[in-house]
Specification:
heterodimer, A: 14 helices, B: 327 residues, mainly alpha, binds zinc ion, metal ion binding (chain A), transferase (chain A), zinc (chain A), Ptb1 (chain A)
């Protein structure tokens, strides 16, 4: 058995500089292609997709390219009687789409245009006695939903409405022997879940529960020789995982532990020079999800042509500065 | 936070348009409301459009019928990630009091075709919960894990079943088989920890057994992150020195010219513990640990140079002053 590592090789002709304007064009044209198969197939992700696209535009300073009132109108139509938001008109409410909705409204400084009391009531109703959160009435439990609930309430300035102690207790119970986190107690560590747990603890001001040196090492072990980061041992590197790992490291004050230059090189190589946008890996198809996390990653790595991004909420920092949200960092 | 990929819808050649189905004549389809921007010419497949137009109409009419049930099947086949379809399907299943065993068979097929989809696994979990019957679950997840031994959803479901229905007995054997097939399977190592923690717990006796178990695997592949993490996890609540042999084990590998960063990291941990416990020869121990950190930073793990330099610095600041006082 050798010591070979699952990884990719960056092609020599891959992009080496940031194609800032192309990405704005890509996002704008994606929203216009409503006849595309891909667009229709992702209806169940529409609210998340709009958050990815709009935040990408905001990070490159082109939020004005989208029609503010149309977006807000769409979000309003997705608020259900129970208070939660669905991913699209006529779908069921879910915490994942609710966080995206609140983030979009925050981007546009329009949170007050929805019934915030109803959202808060609905989120409260999803908390269980062990502190965990259901994603919707069907009862799936996942630390992603703990993050969504706490992030929504923080954005609404209503964090005190839930039992934060219990919520923290549940998230901490998902910490594993390797120092990282999974989606339920005993679930395998996964960098997407680490991001949610660390982000949640930051908003709750309870990062002292984290063993920052051990977790930091696990996170920086995610970097592969290509420079990209993976989500778990023996998995391929991916732009979105690069963001989850990077943001988590930033929150626990250990971003400098990875090789930044190599990661920048990897993320830049995932751009499509013709269409704009980022893919998961060099040469793959681009999409708005990886485009946001590519841009946000570069921002955390110090690229000043992209606006400063907040590592906990993945939104422009300048926008959150105006709010009263408390972020804890180590 | 969300799936990376969107699965392609299955093509279905024998599909009959709804306008040619007499049993649907009474229902008026509702087109998709696309949100912002004026709706442009819709060019995606006629089938997709029609199925979802009728699905919207069914929901709007709150119709829970046999034809609605079969419509959700068509809609799910075209886009199994659409959670609203599954939610509504479950509403119908309850209302019509359908045979849930049949549903389990059906969702098995869907999961086999879409094993990395959150919604289909969630549907399965709810059905198993309703049935309170877990007979097929271990076999089923095993089948899925045979295709992809690290499928996160399959492991989630398996852990839920094991915990909910106390199926602990055979699980360590299964994990053992998986690790023999692929000793880098991090999911299997995690499962091993999950099982032991929830059954016997890590008693002294079990720890000794598990140290040997993981060390045997490490000898076969010394750069296996998962096995090293597991070995250290076993000792999480204890001291490395409560179980002599860890540092000796490391020395054995090191003397064979093995320079895996995980091996060296474990040696550094041992030295750090010795310093922490105030063992004799402080100065020498600190020097050894620092030397190893430098080796990693400069040679064996340059990608993480900053990390190893940090470890060296923090050891020096914690134990360095004391050492100079000693001498
Ligand atoms: Zn990805």
């Amino acid at each position: 058995m050798g010591t070979s590592v699952k990884d990719i090789v960056i092609p020599s002709n891959a992009p080496k500089s940031l194609l800032l304007l192309k990405h704005a064009d890509y996002i704008v044209s994606y929203g216009e292609k409503k006849d595309d198969y891909e667009y229709v197939m992702t209806e169940y992700l529409r609210m998340n997709g709009m958050y990815w696209g709009l935040t990408s535009l905001a990070l490159v300073g082109h939020l004005d390219k989208m029609n503010r009132s149309e977006v807000i109108e769409f979000v309003l139509k997705c608020q259900q009687d129970c208070g939660g938001f669905s991913c699209s008109i006529g779908h069921d409410p879910h915490l994942l789409s609710t966080l995206s909705a609140i983030q979009i409204l925050t981007l546009y400084d329009a949170v007050e245009s929805v019934n915030t009391d109803a959202v808060v009531r609905w989120i409260k109703s999803l908390q269980q006695t062990d502190g965990s959160f259901y994603g919707d009435k069907w009862g799936e439990v996942d630390t992603r939903f703990s993050f969504c609930a706490v992030a929504c309430l923080a954005l609404l300035g209503r964090l005190d409405e839930i039992n934060v102690d219990k919520a923290v207790e549940f998230v901490v119970s998902c910490m594993n022997f390797d120092g990282a986190f999974g989606c339920r107690p005993g679930s395998e560590s996964h960098s997407g879940q680490v991001y949610c747990c660390v982000g949640m603890l930051s908003l709750a001001g309870r990062l002292h529960h984290v063993n920052a040196d051990q977790l930091g090492w696990w996170l920086c072990e995610r970097q592969l020789p290509s420079g990209g980061l993976n989500g778990r041992p023996e998995k391929l590197p991916d732009v979105c995982y690069s963001w989850w790992v990077l943001a988590s490291l930033k929150i626990i004050g250990r971003l400098h532990w990875i090789d930044k230059n190599k990661l920048v090189e990897f993320i830049l190589a995932c751009q499509d020079e013709e269409t704009g946008g980022f893919a998961d890996r060099p040469g793959d198809m681009v999409d708005p999800f990886h485009t946001l996390f590519g841009l946000a990653g570069l921002s955390l790595l110090g690229d000043t042509t992209v606006k400063a991004v907040n590592p906990v909420l993945c939104m422009p920092e300048e926008l959150l500065k105006k709010s009263k949200i408390q972020f804890q960092y180590l | 936070m969300s799936e990376c990929n969107v699965d392609d819808a299955a093509s279905n050649e024998a599909w009959v348009p709804f306008k040619d189905r007499p049993e649907w004549r009474d229902l008026k389809p509702i087109p998709q409301d696309d949100g912002p921007d004026p709706v442009v010419q819709i060019a995606y497949s006629e089938q997709f459009r029609e199925v979802y137009d009728y699905f919207r109409a069914i929901i709007a009419a709150d119709e829970k019928s046999e034809r609605a049930l079969s419509l959700t099947k068509e809609a799910a086949e075209l886009n199994p990630a659409n959670y609203s379809v599954w939610n509504y399907r479950r509403n119908i299943l309850q209302e019509l009091n359908k045979d849930l065993k049949e549903e389990l068979k059906y969702i098995s097929q869907v999961i086999e075709d879409n094993p990395k989809n959150y919604q289909v696994w969630h549907h399965r979990r709810v059905i198993v919960e309703w049935l309170e019957d877990v007979t097929d679950e271990l076999k089923f997840t095993e089948k899925i894990l045979k295709e992809d031994a690290k499928n996160y959803h399959a492991w989630q479901h398996r852990q839920w079943c094991i915990q909910q229905f106390s199926l602990w007995d055979q699980e360590l054997d299964y994990v053992d088989r998986l690790l023999k097939e692929d000793l880098r399977n991090n999911s299997a190592w995690n499962q091993r920890h999950f099982i032991i923690k929830n059954t016997t717990g890590y008693t002294d006796e079990i720890i000794k057994k598990e140290l040997k178990y993981s060390q045997d695997f490490i000898r076969k592949a010394p750069n296996n992150e998962s096995a090293w993490n597991y070995m250290k996890g076993v000792l999480q609540e204890r001291k490395l020195f409560d179980f002599p042999g860890v540092l000796e084990f490391c020395h054995e590998l090191y003397s064979k010219q093995i320079r895996s960063p995980f091996l060296i990291a474990c040696m550094i941990d041992c030295y750090e513990e010795m310093l922490e416990l105030g063992k004799p020869k402080k100065e020498e121990t600190l020097q050894k640990a620092t030397q190893l950190c430098n080796e990693l930073a400069e040679e064996h793990d340059t990608l993480r140079r900053e990390y190893w330099q940090y470890i060296a610095r923090s050891l020096a600041s914690k134990y360095g002053a004391d050492v100079s006082g000693d001498s």
